[in-house]
Amino acid sequence: MKGLFYTGVWLIVLGTLTSSCKKAIIIGDDKPEPILLAQVFDYKLYFDDIKDLIQGYANAEDSVQQVRSLTDHWVRDRLLLVEAEKNFPKEANMNKLLEDYRQSLLRHFFEQRTLEERLDTVITETDLLNYYEANKDQHRLESAILRCYYFKIKKPLARADKILQWWKTFPQQHRQDVLTYADKHAKTNWPDSTQWHEMQMVVQLFPEGTLSPATIRSNRGIVREDRDFIYLLYPLEVYQAQDIAPLDRIREQAARYILHQRELELLERIGKEIYDRDIKDERVKIYTK
Predict the structure, then answer these.
(1) Structural domain total, the chain
(2) 211: alpha, beta or left? (left if phi > 0; alpha if psi -120 to 50)
(3) At residue 21, does pLDDT exceed 50?
């Protein structure tokens, strides 16, 4: 099936992209001579070079458009390459640059394989707590944050409506009642109390002038209203600017740091193992002592 598709594309490419070139020559076992799509100085692009990039198109016509696009991209890329070659410093040692690059690639692939095979990627809560205790002062907040419930509910409320009554003892009591009610009736509903929010952003959710950061305290419910809505906020935890950030706020950052340190330590340990092994086996000779 793929062969038939490529044959169709080839025929259209032959008819549309090489009309100004000499016709392909049929050789040997009826295989056409490779189609030359473009040439930039001594660089040549053939259809066979890009045919794997045009899979997945519904019809051959669409593929031809992709051939034209790929060809144009290749021409532009090769023109830049030629210009770069012209301006390459004569004093630069290309062989040394290539060798340095080759060595860098070899080391990179060796390190990546080593990390994939030997790095411990399991980070426990103890690991995170140990990092947190040792690095608290490096994680002070630039602005106030809070973890909270927030609901914006349209007025008027029916006389039998108990949301404000429930709210007086929320979340110690009637927590599920409030969450169920908000799920049905709230225009804005934040039932996930694990998320951290910027305090200034939360203040802006209330009618202007009705709430200030100074009035927001942990475990104190807040009720505000205007002509159309009732606004309910229950802050569970509040941290001010320059407070040490809670662990939950920096959990992902801490995990990345721990993994990075493990990577550095593992690679250093592997390097020492290799050094000690080959020194012991007398594969290394040092003449500067």
Answers:
(1) 2
(2) beta
(3) no
